[in-house]
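Exam prep: given the inputs below (a chain plus magnesium ion), describe the expected output before reading on.
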Amino acid sequence: MSASVQRSRGRARTADQRGGGTGEKYREMSVAEFFAKNKELAGFSNPTRALYQAVRELVENSLDATDAKGILPWIHISIAPVPEPSQGDGSRPRYVISVEDNGVGVPVTSMAMAFGKVLFSSKYVIRQTRGMYGLGVKAAVLYGQMTAGTPVEVFSATKGSQYVHMMRLMIDVQRNEPRILEKGEWNKRGSWHGTKVTLTLEGDWSRARSKILEYVKRTAVIAPYAEIVLETPDGEILYFPRTTRRMPKPPKEAKPHPHGVDIEQLKSIIRSTRAKTLKDLLVTEFQSIGEKTAVDFLERYGIDPKLKPRELLRKGRERLLRRLVDALMEYPFRSPKSDYLSPIGSDIIEIGLRRMFAPEWVGAVTRSPKAHRGHPFIVEVGIAYGGSIESRDEPLLLRYANKIPLLYEEREDVSYKVVSSINWKQYNIDFPAPLVVLVHIASTKVPYKGVGKESVSDVPEIESEIRNAVQEIARKLRIYLSRKAREQEAIKRSITLAKYIPEVALSLAYFIRPPEKWQPPREEEVRKIKESLIRLVARNIDLPPIDGESQDPEEIVRKIVESVQLD
Ligand code: ADP
Ligand code: MG
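Solution:
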């Protein structure tokens, strides 16, 4: 019996591979092979994008290992051409990219997998991080392997360890496993902790240059608490010093919210939980459910609170499981907690925008948390106007998601959709105008359109929050601009009047004495009359306060008077 089953299985497999007479050939593909064959899905579509994307993935990992862990980031990025002799064979230019940080480091036990197995990550938890797919650095390693044939080299030390560990490895594409070529460890000198990753790949620096510089610049806008050094293949060194030591508080790890759960997720929670009853499971495994809520919820849907969670996995219980998931989505639980998010904060956004654009006016807001499908999110918007910002035909849009600058696919992004649909005239802005709009979406689940993480889908809840945030700051800008216009109008009027003050004062000075005693008036007398006239004119001009500070109209009129030359 068993032999015949075996045989029939064996036959089935061969038939499968032959395609059961269909002429098709069937086989399985590892995820490493899948991404090696579909590089563009991860953002590695050509040598320009690849160079940019590799830098981006490494920098994002460095930032996740620092600011998300409460460490003020220090990041050193170096991009260098592979020296000539090895390039003299007519092959395309290759570059060595190396990124070093002062982050928490990678434990040696996970090092090979973290850099050598696609879809291996420490970020598969509900927490706001830049990385989320467990793909980024491996996509860069794969691209390096395919275009330069070289391994990735990693040095890393964690805080607790006495050693610095090194590994050079490649990815076994067929098996999706790391292949370690060399490893070593050294006793730590001092207390260094962090990671340095180096890889070589084919790239096009001359085309990627502007994007990479822009990426680093925009990172510095949103993380003014980071110190970033960028060494370019042209021998330039760009240094972005830390301009504040204030840093957003690191995100905490969250439990899932009941509104976002699905059947598969609930099953895996049931498999791993220690809760003995359904009620305990709800309280311990979900956020926003306390004892009272759990009891009320189960009563409302007539589900037994004492039910053993594992019972739900038994055959014949599928309907109950489905009903439970529907109920979880429907019941009005408290909104997801925003403690798990790490917004930048309006003050840091303003610091960043001021430093990068030296604008005339800046405003920013961090909105209160909202949720989309059980995932909390916060929208932040900053607007900068005037000063050294160049006038353009539309606002310069700086898009960020979980603190990552997004540079490509602008027109597909929800922020672009909102910002380009705003009627800026309503806010006293006529294009071309010097306007920068920064939009940041922070969430435990950013709905990116692709794994390359370049644009965000237009989820209605997020879209409307962005609109509200932009409008909120734009209204403040309008108040500033209309005050400024009124001020300029008032100054224009006072100039017309003030111009005459010196001459009028001189003439009036004669009237101090009766006509028979007229003589050239003394300077002191003319000055006193001038002062009275200045007060008179100043009283009649209305200078609105700018940025909350009132201006002294007398000062302004006096300055005008002083600048008038009498013949
Ligand atoms: P993701 O960032 O989405 O998790 P990656 O493939 O980019 O995926 O990285 C895999 C894992 O390697 C990360 O989850 C992290 O644990 C670890 N890692 C990568 N770079 C660093 C770094 N510079 N410092 C600390 N850990 C890192
Ligand atoms: Mg990553």
